[in-house]
Amino acid sequence: MKITDYLHEQSRSLEQSSRQIRDFRVFDFNHIPEEPIMRHEVRPVIDAYLRYLKTGIANHLFIFGSRGSGKTLMIKYIQRQLASRRDADILYVNCRQHNTSFKVLARLLGVRPRGCSVDELWHQFSVAYSRRLILVLDEVDLLSDKDRHKDILYLLARSPRNYMVVLLSNHPKFVSKLDESIRSSLQPEMLHFRNYDATEILEILRDRARLGLHQFRETDLAQIAALTARSTNSDVRIAIKTLYYVTIEESPDVAEVFNRARRDLLRDVLNDLNDRNFLILRAAMESPEPFVKEVYARYRRLSRAAQEEPFSYVYFYASLSYLQSIGLILLLATKVGRAYTNRIQLLLDSETLEAANHSRLT
Length: 362
Ligand SMILES: Nc1ncnc2c1ncn2[C@@H]1O[C@H](COP(=O)(O)OP(=O)(O)O)[C@@H](O)[C@H]1O
Ligand SMILES: [Mg+2]
What we know:
Blueprint: H1 3-18, H2 42-55, E1 61-65, H3 71-82, E2 88-94, H4 101-109, H5 118-128, E3 132-138, H6 151-158, E4 164-169, H7 180-186, E5 189-193, H8 198-212, H9 218-231, H10 236-248, H11 254-271, H12 275-286, H13 292-305, H14 313-325, E6 329-336, E7 339-346, H15 350-361
Parallel strand pairs: 1-4, 1-5, 2-3, 3-4
Antiparallel strand pairs: 6-7
Helix pairs in contact: 4-5, 6-7, 8-9, 8-10, 9-10, 10-11, 12-13
């Protein structure tokens, strides 16, 4: 086949498949729908926002839940609904892109992150924002380990301006790992966004399909929703990406396409992992019987070999729930003899893990 033939063929087939799509935005993970599907967990968030805007008394929030449980969307949606209020500012920063206190402040002030200290930036910030302010720090657990004291949190919590702080994270234990000095002044209300069930995922998909597609099959949507709820941590992103593949491909096999979507998104997740979590995954992978205690013992050996101080068992266990919340493992209670013990089921294969490790080190 000639290159030109290939090019024409591909562009024809793309043309054909995109005819199914009325509005590409429904597949954009950052797209904010006109009306997201209601989830009850959003109520205390709205209550806290309104109370603060009325009284000026800050009620800090820590919102946690698995990847793709709608945390970012809900917060952005509320922000958009409240945008017309003139008596307060609501700011949003994602710590994935701005991963130190310094960079967060520089971003909020619109200055280049160099040439002055965090304290100087903080001073400028306090001058710039003198009225009520709600500051959202999304993916706050991705603040770099280099930013050891998380100054931004300390400064916000202690500010006489009474700013309100909203922290979002996949990591349920983020707050309990903070320095005592920050925790005691922040004392955020902890709000858990539970995983969507298959019915809710189906509703979200149907909504997108109605808006964005010319035609779709209800059975496909139901199958995608069921797969997402059953074999991921209900990560709606995987569902949306699967819907995209199902739409653009000619006779797709939904289960196969679903696995592809999952692999695509797995790469992003692995890129965010720190070295210790990597070692934990490897330990689980190498354990013939991946019961939690065995994996912990193996993890300690691997850490020693890599000259790293291993986590204590308590932290190790917290890391397991984190790995579960980002969809890399499942913890399954299994009966051994008379007692129950947790068994780790990996949701990725060793090739994917090693490939990701390789690309991190190079
Ligand atoms: N209630 C909802 N209604 C409509 N779409 C949703 C809803 N919850 C999540 N989504 C969609 O699912 C995807 C993942 O949600 P996101 O807010 O990014 O999750 P998180 O921040 O918890 O990882 C996004 O594309 C989002 O638009
Ligand atoms: Mg998010």
